[in-house]
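Can anyone check this?
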Amino acid sequence: MAKVQARVEAALERFLPPAGIAPQRLHEAMRYVVLGGGKRIRPLLAFAAGEASAGEPARADPARLEIAACAVECIHAYSLVHDDLPCMDDDVLRRGKPACHVEFDEATALLVGDSLQGLAFQLLAEHRLSDDPAVQIEMVKILALACGSRGMAGGQAIDLASVGRALSVPELEYMHIHKTGALIRASVALGARCSSALEPGQLARLDHYAKCVGLAFQVVDDVLDQESSTATLGKTVGKDAANNKPTYVSALGLARAKALAEELREEAQAVLSELRGGARRLAELADFIVLRKF
């Protein structure tokens, strides 16, 4: 994990515009929100999926995986900036420091999100990620769908519309398959397509795995929001309950929510058992996502 995290951090440092070129304030803010923070779960999943789909780690192309990883991390960072805005979740803390709109201002934060989304697609278009041009176009489409109205943005719209409502578990799952799960599934899908050694049925199994860990990630987030502290998580805890937002904990109770996360982890591991070799990192990441304390 540390090796991939360091590699992605260095790549993001290169790809982000320098803070010293115009418009300086915007570029400074972009670097503020992307660099030096976060678990880099999505880049880790992209790298692990690339290894799994190649059949053996030696056949995965790290340079291609690096681009895919940076693209999804730019989308993720933009989503956090917009999520914290007063018109959304209205939060002041992210990754243990003031949220972008607090450190800079709301207009800059809005433009940071816009700019990071543009940079993500610039990376996918500028660099060769597949030997097959059709596959690379498919990768652009996958990321576009994941962050649009049928993915992350749509999930956020459902989330905002659900405040004060008691959602059923299927309704919660539908919301989070879009809001949280879509970009996690895209991370796995892009990483897998950086390999030239895909086999029939492998992509479907990897997507099933990603759906499970994407939902598990959100379930654990809801549990940690109940059990952890602001200092540990680096973001304000208890806001969902205070704002009367539906969560897996409010729908199921704490014990059942924890059990659901474990069930999703077991399902993800079972799917990976059908892949031949190379899936160890994905299995370890499923463990990390469910067992993490931050």
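Reply from J.R.: I decoded it. The mean pLDDT is 92.
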